[in-house]
Description:
By secondary structure, the protein is of the alpha/beta class. The chain has 15 helices and 18 strands.
Amino acid sequence: MQIRLGILGLGTVGSGVLDLLDRHRAFFRDSLGFEFPVTAHCSRSQASLDRFAGQAPFLTRDPLALVSRPDVDVVLELAGGEDAPRAWVEAAFAHGKHVITANKALLAKHGQDLFPLAERTGRFLLFEAAVGGGIPIIRTLQEAFIANDIHGLACIINGTCNYILTEMTQKKLSFQTALKDAQALGYAEADPSFDIEGTDSAHKVALLASLCYGKYVDYGSMSVEGITTLSDVDIAMAEEMGFAIKLLGVVSQDREGRIQANVYPALLEKKHQLATVEGVLNAVFLKTSAVGAILLTGAGAGKLPTASSVVSDLVSLARQLATGNPKVQPMGFFSSRNRADLRPIDELETEFYLRLTAVDKPGVLAKVTAILGEEGISIRALVQKPEHDPERVPVIFLTHSTKNSNVRRALKRIDALDIIQAPTQVLRFYR
Ligand SMILES: NC(=O)c1ccc[n+]([C@@H]2O[C@H](COP(=O)([O-])OP(=O)(O)OC[C@H]3O[C@@H](n4cnc5c(N)ncnc54)[C@H](OP(=O)(O)O)[C@@H]3O)[C@@H](O)[C@H]2O)c1
């Protein structure tokens, strides 16, 4: 069976897909019975098209010209962006094409329209590569764990942040130096805000939360905190306590069926499996009803890992088409009519780490502890770090389990005190 491909985007992932299709061509043809000729290429610049000249008969710089071609059966959307690719995917469906994408930003922003449209038009919209790069988490949730309830999910899903946190811990670097190193190595963009402020993680966590609980989780309704305010004091304190700091996506569902999905930097005991995930690696930790706890970890990005997931979607689609009666993966639930009413982070109950930046003078601790007490927060430990600058002394409070709303109210009052010199750093414990 022949399935003709239009490849939209010939950058890191697109070139990786061409590479893997080439390497496995004989196996796909001889053992699986599938051929995947590439009939059209699209890239923004002529230079990119020239680099792949001769590998496809039709070359264009216009995505809409590619998605409307009669000799394309499946469009691989590997260009990126949010609004422009939405129009390409809609046009592809209108012309009867299936779409495979690696684009989490597109799905997080427009998936609630595109998935129902795919169902209505009987087209596939597959996206294994969009979350966790080479980690097969989408199909794991959709297929492998179909006989499990998901009791909870926690993930490290942004390699840039995990690399920065690992460097800060292992090499005792400041956040800024670790970020610069990540940029020099190509792990962080020139404008890294999308990664370090947690937005990229939120896009992926919203998709995972939706798959876990069969509702549309809007990433815009999630509480999202990044890693930009973490300091070497936090990293050193975590080390001293036997903990690691990771940017986590945390997902769960309560007894009433309300989903909680948030992104925040968290303290994890070093013996927790997620704490051992270092550098640019990604990981998804699942608590499930039948299998129990499981960790999937591996390359969350990169040319071949991401391309591996794209090609795996392609073969999965080919198998469906070969049946003659393809079953479109039911993602219709991912629709604004089925929007999850997310449980606000204020209702989250956990232990907290609070690093205050205070002036070194008598009475500071009494004022802060009084406010914590008034807001119903019980203190487990208090550490004052020596600091050369008496105007900015780090004071760390560890709390017993308490509601996020209590901490929010307390910090509003504490950070307004004239003895407090900077907004308090908050970390939650994940157990
Ligand atoms: N890289 C990864 O490790 C990774 C991992 C997971 C998911 N993803 C996702 O995969 C997608 C592609 O990422 P990438 O890293 O491969 O990006 P990339 O290296 O920047 O390549 C993007 C390609 O798309 C083309 N392109 C961009 N906008 C276009 C437009 N408006 N019209 C036509 N062509 C356009 C670019 O053309 P020019 O080069 O000519 O500008 C380039 O060929 C993104 O959605 C990304 O989020 C990437």
